[in-house]
Amino acid sequence: MLGFMGTVIGMIFAFDTIEAAGDISPSIVAGGIKIALLTTVAGLIVAIILQLFYNYLVAKIDSLVNDMEDASISLVDVLVKHKVTGKQFLSFSLYKIKFLPTKDRYHGQL
């Protein structure tokens, strides 16, 4: 958008100078075209940098998602290997936890 806005501003500047001079010559139009081209280049540089940063972030997020999928598959494999269902896992976990009273609260101990 920065490059496009610069192009429009440069063209407006070029047409304003043509109107003020009342004549069309390359030297009159060159200033506006220069502004348009410089802002277009600046916009392209910013866009390229942001695109590289965006690609890096997307790759990092994809890597994290793949790691999470691998971890969940490993967890399911362990649960299937030990033939533990959700209900059995919950009752097994609650059976192993003993609550020990303290002054102000209970602490679970595995």
TrEMBL record:
The chain crosses the membrane at residues 36-58. This is MotA/TolQ/ExbB proton channel domain-containing protein. Residues 1-69 form the MotA/TolQ/ExbB proton channel domain. It is a multi-pass membrane protein. It comes from Halteria grandinella. It is found in: Cell membrane. InterPro entries: ExbB/TolQ_transport (IPR050790), MotA_ExbB_proton_chnl (IPR002898). Keywords: Cell membrane, Membrane, Protein transport, Transmembrane, Transmembrane helix, Transport. Signal peptide: none annotated. Belongs to the ExbB/TolQ family. It comes from the Eukaryota. GO terms for cellular component: plasma membrane. Pfam families: MotA_ExbB (PF01618). Its main location: membrane. The lineage of its organism: Eukaryota, Sar, Alveolata, Ciliophora, Intramacronucleata. GO terms for biological process: protein import.
